[in-house]
Write a structure and sequence with these properties.
458 residues; alpha/beta; Leucine Aminopeptidase, subunit E, domain 1; Aminopeptidase; nine-stranded mixed beta sheet; 16 helices; 34% helix
């Protein structure tokens, strides 16, 4: 797959981006053969449509991409990317694209080059794009590579992406950027006070572990914490088979923070970056943890287990407690944590929690600019009582099912201490193919965060 722009060349094929209400005027300025061809094919500039126009010898002389109308464009993103599969092989130069959309549309084109081909040959579109004028091509290529890393990690099944493999992926990333990595495994988790990571992962054939990657020695401290549950059976509260089918993506939080970490390091942002990933498999065995167990977390809080299928917040809790000990300027957790978040906002929006108004403003402004939509949900304090069972400090799965994403976020906040904190409850999966996003693993919120970081960390 190619996630890079084509080299500039004088013989690139002109590709005209045309809105529906501009088609008639555009045709009025074209030679008669071009006008006749467009009219004969019935091209209307509908959003995502593509048309190649031949010269007298039958070669492609130019091509058109339909840009629809404003109402249609508002219902999606990466509109030019939607037309790329309909273009012949070749190198293209864009004309007529609104300047404020050039970066997003160029990135979307790059992402059409992604294909998950580990187990089967895949053929992404062969149309290549010269970076539009004024676009930072190198930056977009880095972002596309980070997104591809996230997608590859999520798409890889647990047979090849267990805790051992996730650790290896982190080590490869660290090596490529000159970062350091430390890993605490198995019984050493108990010796070094990570009891909940150990408890959740101890039933698996692959030992649980905490991966700690560090990069940069100047600038604000930024800590990213990603849920690395490489497969989730539900534990003794076993999931039904239909609910287990996508559980290879339960490490989507880890995959997303690793993609974001690649972007940060490759772009050389001036931050002291730390990435914490509790990597486990929630399995069933004779030593699996049980409903009714009470665990003591790294920070001393006790947790009653009312459902072993609410394991992600347990492993994140120990990692967040560790992160808070370092007093970072900002700590962000990302996790495929609750079905409640998906019911609330669907698969496209990245729900997040934050109390800092400046952080919220910067993130939402950035999200709109880079077409990486987010949606704020509340750390609603009156629901704190729902996660306090009485027999222990906290309940990992409050009964009743109300406000499931909010109560999970409140649970996690108990372990972030006084740190400036943000939590993402993402889905990490595109259930249907869309422009620049094939069905499968997908990053959510990372590009918005990358764009917001300079503002929130200054």
């Amino acid at each position: 797959m190619s996630l890079k722009f084509a080299d500039n060349t004088a013989d690139a094929i002109p590709l005209h981006v045309i809105a529906q209400d501009a088609l008639e005027d555009w045709l009025a300025d074209q030679p008669a053969p071009v006008t006749s061809w467009v009219q004969a094919t019935g091209f209307t500039a509908a959003l995502g449509s593509a048309l190649a126009i031949p010269d007298a010898d039958g070669a492609v002389s130019m091509a058109l991409v339909g840009y629809g109308d404003a109402a249609r464009r508002a219902r999606g993103r990466f509109h030019v990317a939607g037309a790329v599969p309909g273009l012949p092989k070749g190198t293209y130069r864009l004309h007529g694209l609104p300047a404020d959309q050039a970066e997003v549309e160029a990135l979307g084109w790059l992402l059409t080059g992604y294909a998950f081909d580990r187990y089967k040959d895949q053929k992404p579109p062969e149309a290549r794009l010269i970076a539009p004028e004024g676009v930072d091509a190198a930056r977009l290529e880095v972002i596309a590579a980070g997104e591809a890393l996230t997608r590859d990690l999520i798409n890889t099944p647990a047979s090849d992406m267990g805790p051992v493999d996730l650790e290896a992926a982190c080590a490869d990333l660290a090596q490529s950027h000159g970062a350091t990595i430390e890993v605490i495994r198995g019984e050493d988790l108990l010796k070094q006070n990570f009891p909940m990571i150990h408890t959740v992962g101890r039933a698996s054939a692959q030992a649980p572990r905490l991966i700690d990657l560090r990069w940069g020695d100047a600038g604000p401290k930024l800590t990213l914490v990603g849920k690395g549950v490489c497969f989730d059976t539900g534990g003794l509260n076993l999931k039904p088979g239909a609910s287990m089918g996508l559980m290879k993506k339960d490490m989507g939080g880890a995959a997303t923070v690793l993609g974001l970490a690649h972007m940060i390091m490759a772009l050389g942002l001036e931050v002291q970056l730390r990435v914490l990933i509790p990597a486990v498999e929630n399995s069933v065995s004779s030593d699996a943890f049980r409903p009714g167990d009470i665990l003591t977390a790294r920070n001393g809080l006790t947790v009653e287990i009312n459902n072993t299928d609410a394991e992600g917040r347990l492993v994140l809790a120990d990692a967040l407690a560790l992160g808070a000990e370092d007093a970072p300027d900002l700590m962000i957790s990302m996790a495929t944590l609750t079905g409640a978040a998906r019911v609330a906002v669907g698969p496209d929006l990245a729900p997040y929690y934050a109390d800092d108004p400046a952080l919220v403003s910067a993130l939402e402004t950035a999200a709109a600019q880079v077409a990486d939509p987010v949606w704020r949900l509340p750390f609603y304090a009156p629901y704190e009582a729902m996660i306090e069972p009485g027999i222990a400090d906290l309940d990992n799965a409050p009964k009743g099912g109300f406000a499931g994403s909010i109560t999970a976020a409140l649970f996690l906040r108990r372990f972030a201490g006084d740190t400036r904190y943000m939590h993402f409850d993402i889905y990490g999966w595109s259930p249907d193919a869309k422009p620049a996003r094939p069905r499968g693993g997908v990053g959510m919120g990372a590009r918005a965060l990358l764009a917001a970081l300079p503002e929130v960390l200054k």
